Amino acid sequence: MKCLLLSVFMFYATALCMGQSVKTSIYSVENNIVMVKNEFVSKMDYTNYSGIKPFTNISSVSFQSLDNQSNYHATFYRYNGWDGESGDFQSVDIKRNGRSIFQLDNQDGWVITSQCYEQLDSTTTLLYLVGQVYNNNPGFLTLVLLKNDVATLIFNKEFAISSVERTNEIFTMYLQDGFNEYIESSDTTVNNRGRYKINWENGLLYFYMLAKKQE
Question: How far apart are CA 183 and CA 164, in angstroms?
């Protein structure tokens, strides 16, 4: 058993040293139920503030599943009195066919983006929310998996999106765990942030480490 564990460790260590990507599934599916992996979902601080309601409707987006069975509507709300603070909005509500199936608050704030969802297959859609950047550090990247009448928070970590691509029907989201810092009046970086990607493969989303962070 010790030999097996050592072999597994050496495989991952060698892959990282050689620059090869190491992947793991973000969640699993058992009996058609999405099973969350806790290591990919960080808890956000929440304070029960008074006077934050009624929320202000900042924006919304509507979209369908590819099988046309699910009509989704996501509404993004700003707390009352929070104009100009903590991102563009602090609360999201998702409805399917007119019924609310998901609600989440992020008091550090998310920002409005031009695109925030991706249809992965006929019954599965991904909603992604980008957190407010603070002091050159990314906010929470929040991924919600929508499948039939269930919405599941599958990923909530402090990452920035570098790009989102779909090539040959393969969806890929490239991430970094921070932003490069440069020597003044130079193109030389003083650090190299870790690079990652999330890929849709064989009915699941996988997380890849592409390059380790170097300070």
Answer: 29
pLDDT number for residue 169? 81
Nearest 5°: the CA angle 196, 24, 205 is 80
Q: Which residue has the tokens 């599965």?
A: 124
What residue type is 20 in one-letter code? Q
Q: How many Å apart are CA 171 and CA 165, to the nearest integer?
A: 6
Report the alpha-carbon distance of residue 123 to residue 70 in Å, rounded. 8
The C-alpha atoms of residue 48 and residue 169 are separated, in whole angstroms, by 43
Residues 6+ apart with CB under 8 A from 56: 77, 78, 79, 80
CB atoms within 10 A of CB 166: 12
Give me the phi and psi of 140, to 5 degrees please.
-75, 130
DSSP alpha helices (H): ranges in the chain? 2-17
Q: What is the pLDDT of residues 129-161, one digit of tens each?
A: 999 999 889 999 999 999 989 999 999 999 999
Sign of the CA dihedral with 154 first, then 40, 42, and 132 last? negative
Half-sphere exposure of 159 (CA within 13 A, CB side): 26
The Cα angle at residue 114 between residues 110 and 120, in degrees rounded to 5: 90
